[in-house]
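tool_log.txt
---
The assistant was asked to compare two proteins side by side. It first ran the structure predictor on the initial sequence, then on the second. Raw inputs and outputs are pasted verbatim so the downstream comparison step can read them without reformatting.
(1)
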Amino acid sequence: MERERATVEVMIRRFCRDQHGGGSELCPRCRELLDYARYRLARCPFQEGKTTCGKCPVHCYKPGMRQRIQEVMRHVGPRMMLTNPLLSFRHFLDGLRRKPRRR
């Protein structure tokens, strides 16, 4: 779960920097998305046994936020191998897990 949180944060920060010209601080819209993603991860019913959110059978993001996080992942995902290869590879491995079962 900690790695999932770190991955989401890296992706949102990179997206904000690329799209909104932010430096080390996130714009309010990206800050809201990061806070929401952290909130949802903390309440994930699968916790440590989870796969990546994109392959999860339960879509816990509300539709507007889900669309925003998908936009972030589409933009940053291909670039992650160049900037964060280890984090990217581990995220790929997490995605290979079977669909989780609820606790």
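(2)
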Amino acid sequence: MKPLPAYQWLIAVPALIFSTSEIYPGKPAEISGQIIHNETGQRIENAYIYIVSGEEEGLSDKNGRFTITTWQQLPVTLVIEHPRYKKKQVRTTNASEKQLIKLEPKNQ
């Protein structure tokens, strides 16, 4: 068997690299927003945010802000949990829109 000329490898390698677009179509979506108390507007720190059908997750920071990157096609459903607040689900259809998520306290 004859070895392949060098220029043929220049064609084969990019073809292999670009074939991964079938596995991960498009670019990842970055979903971000803020979690606040539904009545007082107080920012909620350490709320746990995750996407229902994936492994993407995150926590809100001291200002209630969060960012999650996903390869899943939109829309996706975010679940927000915090020990002192009721669990909430939010459907996200547009990653470029900042999410403002209001949680209700459990003691109401």
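---
observation on (2): The chain is about 10% helix and 40% strand. The chain has a mean pLDDT of 86.
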